Amino acid sequence: MPSPVALLAKYTPAAVTSGTPLAVLGVDGVVVLDGETRVPARLEHLSARGKWVRDLRVPDGTREAVAHLARRYGIVWASEWGPNAHLALAEVLGLPADPWPYLPLQFNKLAAIRQYAGDRPWVWIDDPVVDLDPLPDDPGGVVVRVDPAKGLVGLDLSAIDEAVFGPAS
How far apart are CA 28 and CA 23, in angstroms? Predict the structure, then answer.
């Protein structure tokens, strides 16, 4: 049987609807918090197919924030959680039954995001620790760094929408 790493190397993320702007989401420090929290959060018992279990805090309002993004963007996970992100978070976040695609990587994600997005507008929302390489002056999309003690709920989603879509008319 091939190793899990070999299997991931063969994984090609499915495309989201053509032309739809992308929201590329990290997991740790974005939708779940593992350290200090500065927002109200619930401790959740998360598991993917019962193969692993983690107790992590999910900030109040994260479900609504993810729903807002899912209405406006094609969602793609970019996290060390890989295929487990959608499985483990589906019930807590009210995610659709069909898993969102994921980019199988942990660090230095920008090149993979740019390649996956192609000509589509995109926003990458992640914890700042994922940047081992410096970001270029023009990354080709919108990069939003999350305070890992607040997660996604610490962001102004309307400002992100305006940065991706332009001012509301």
Answer: 16
**Nearest alpha-carbon partner for 41 in 154, 129, 156:** 154
What are the structure tokens assigned to 112, written together? 């993979």
Is 154 within 8 Å of 146 (Cβ atoms)?
Answer: yes
The region that residue 19 occupies, defined by phi over 0 for left and psi between -120 and 50 for alpha, beta otherwise, is left
CA 62 to chain centre: 12
Cβ(148)–Cβ(33) below 8 Å:
yes
Q: What is the pLDDT of residues 43-77, one digit of tens each?
A: 999 998 877 888 999 999 999 999 999 999 999 99
Full DSSP string of 37-57: -SS-EEEEEEESTTS-EEEEE
Task: Provide the pairing of β-strand 122-126 with 102-103.
Answer: unpaired
Q: 111-149: per-residue pLDDT in tens?
A: 999 999 999 999 999 998 777 677 888 899 999 999 999
pTM exceeds 0.85, yes or no: yes
Q: Two tokens at 131? A: 């940047």
102 burial level (CB within 10 Å; 0-12, 13-18, 19+): buried
